[in-house]
Amino acid sequence: MANSQPTDFDAIIIGAGFAGLYMLHSLRDKLGLSARVYETGNGVGGTWYWNRYPGARCDTDSYIYCYTFDKQLLQEWEWTERYPEQPEILRYLNHVADRFDLRKDIRFNACVTEASFDEKANRWTIRTEEGDAVTAKYFIGAAEASRRAGSLVNALFMLRTGPDRPGP
Predict the structure, then answer these.
(1) pLDDT band for position 4 (cuts 50, 70, 90)
(2) 3-class SS of residue 116
(3) Is the pLDDT higher at 5 or at 96?
(4) Where are the alpha helices (DSSP H) in 18-114?
(5) What is the rounded end-to-end Cα distance, in angstroms, of the chain?
(6) What is the CA radius of gyration of the chain?
(7) Residue 43 backbone zone (phi > 0: left; psi -120 to 50: alpha; other: beta)
(8) Which of 117, 155, 114, 156 is nearest to 138 (CA)?
(9) pTM
(10) Please, which pLDDT band fits residue 64 given cuts at 50, 70 and 90?
(11) Quick check: 13 and 142 in contact, CB under 8 A?
């Protein structure tokens, strides 16, 4: 990293889709932890960012397919359809990212290439194609892209403090 950006975090999250945005909000805003998200794309949305084919839509009722952690957010967002299409879902996720100022802790166009755990230090080291090298106590895969980090994290919301010790 060329500038004075932090390199040590409580948590590193891969992916800025539904899971990654929620995890960032929860860790940072509810628990007061330092966190950074690495996202391969240049915007939030995860699946809804990448899958832009004609007719892409959710197969779940819109009132279920949204965040429920904030009553005001639930009240201010009005879905236009029972089963929203991709553009509307992406608008929703962008709204959430803006409303909770999540973008400041997301590195876009950043592909994680390696994640290794140091048993002695009890820390993860995460590296990206762009040359970032950061450390964290927790490494959370919230995206399909987490497989590119050597399959160390392969489940949604998996929080670990080491390869063989499940976290909280």
Answers:
(1) low
(2) strand
(3) 96
(4) 18-24, 47-50, 71-76, 86-99
(5) 31
(6) 16
(7) beta
(8) 117
(9) 0.83
(10) confident
(11) yes
Per residue in 109-166, pLDDT tens?
999 999 999 999 999 999 999 999 999 999 998 765 444 444 333 333 334 444 554 4
- What tokens does 166 get? 């499940």
Place of tokens 């608008």: 91
Instruction: Tell me what pLDDT residue 38 has.
Output: 96
Instruction: Collect all residues with Cβ–Cβ distance below 8 Å to 106 and sequence separation of at least 6.
Output: 16, 24, 36, 37, 38, 39, 44, 97
Distance CA 153, CA 125 (A): 13
Q: What is the DSSP letter of 119?
A: T
Q: Which residues, 6 or more positions from 113, have their beta carbon under 8 angstroms from its beta carbon?
A: 127, 128, 129, 148, 149
CA nearest neighbour of 165 among 139, 144, 142: 139
